[in-house]
Amino acid sequence: MMKFLEHKYGTQIKVLQDVGLNSLLARLCHPDTHQPTINELVEFIYTQLIMTVLDQEFPTKVTRVPTRMTQKHPQSLLEVNALNTEQKVVSVNLARAGTFPSHVCYNLLNYILDPKLIRQDHVTAARVTDKAHKVIGTTLAGSKIGGPIDDSIVLFPDPMGATGGTIISALDHYKKEVKGSAKKFVSLHLIITPEYISQVTKSHPDLIVYAVRIDRGLSPEKVLKAVPGEFWQQEKGLDDNDYIVPGGGGFGEILNNSYV
Q1: Strands 135-144 and 118-129
Q2: H-assigned helices in 17-147
Q3: Which of 63, 76, 84, 156 gives a 20 to 30 Å CA spacing to 37?
Q4: Into how many domains does the chain fold?
């Protein structure tokens, strides 16, 4: 049974308690981890992360299917509670850090659900910073949306949930500019911060957030010893340039070998 972190951020926030994933994520964050290892680690982690979301958030139905033994024993079909393959899904590639994670989710979904009902959208999002390199917003430079989102589960696989600006801008776009009403919106992150949770829950309280880890490493010692969220306003996971601490540095830069 999947375990989740005990916290006081609200029921929409799901932080996994998985020693295997945390071990892989710790290695991914290590300064010696670069290409091609980083891609392999991201694929391992996001495969498990999307499987968790499928288990927790997607509809199921009892299905009777044949096995290799059915020819000899036709009366004994396999009866299993499986995912409803008719569920529509949109995986949103938030370029550039989210490009590979979205591909991993999209690829796996095509094997588990009906591929005709699965699509991948593309949104180019970038931080906007001031002269002090502090994030002051997010700009959407362009998008390629494959149609309406009626009855779809819309996924945002984005490794770092730092300030929340990218997710908020993307959700604003889908709710205001894309036709249809989604069944639910789910974000999938490697790391999130208390600041991220505060911003996204204010702007989009319907968003369901999944993460492998929450980082609040710049919080006072008393706060770090308490249950996450108990002293939410005193928790701090972002430095002055809005990078996560302890974090993992810029995953987008390392994933793409592009440091501009």
Answers
A1: antiparallel
A2: 19-29, 37-57, 99-112
A3: 156
A4: 1
Range of the domain at 29: 13-56+85-256
Place of tokens 């044949």: 66
Altogether, the residues listed in the chain come to a count of 260
Q: Among candidates 198, 168, 167, 190, which has minimal Cα distance to 249?
A: 190
Structure tokens at 201: 């829950």
Q: Are the C-beta atoms of residues 83 and 59 closer than 8 Å to each other?
A: yes
* pLDDT digits 0-9 by tens, 120-137: 999 987 665 666 666 555
Q: Note whether residue 8 is domain-resident.
A: no
Report in angstroms the alpha-carbon separations of 130 from 12, 97, 206: 31, 21, 30
Q: What is the CATH number of the domain that holds 228?
A: 3.40.50.2020
C-alpha 220/C-alpha 230 separation (Å) is 13
What the block records as the tokens of 85 is: 């393959």
The answer to whether position 161 is within a domain reads yes
Amino acid at 92: V
In a domain, 80, yes or no: no
Specify the pTM: 0.93
For residue 120, list its beta bridge partners: 91
User: Is the CB of residue 226 less than 8 Å from the CB of residue 249?
Assistant: no
* Nearest of 204, 207, 170 to residue 187 by alpha carbon: 207
